[in-house]
Amino acid sequence: MEYKLPFEVYNKNLKKGKLLGLKCNDCGTVTCPPTMACSECAGTNHEIHELSGMGKIVTFSVSYVGAEGRQNEHPLTIVLVKLDEGPWIMGNLIDLDPQKVTMEIIGKRVKAGSKMFPGDKYSAAAARPLFSFI
Description:
By secondary structure, the protein is mainly β. It has one helix at 7-15, and strands at residues 19-24, 30-31, 46-51, 54-63, 76-83, 88-93, 109-117, 126-133.
């Protein structure tokens, strides 16, 4: 069995500002980032689906310690966002100084963008979702 949406394709599109996921043709569930099987029914009958990137913040964490080789990126705010299409996805919040983040951001509407980040000691460079307030 092959992936309908390999990471290389997902990442290439994310670099271009397109957030892709998979929509299950059996139950309609949308997954993002893409997985081999549907998170709802375990089916593998998927089609590639472009997501709006819009959603609301469910929770967050402020990270003060960076990965080895990327300490200069910190502190940063990592948010878990429930996208309008259903899936939950993590990314960095860029609109607010991490030192000023409070519980008031939970439930706020955001839109996804992306940015290329360099690799660290253990991983290669890749695009990551970034979120900004709507």
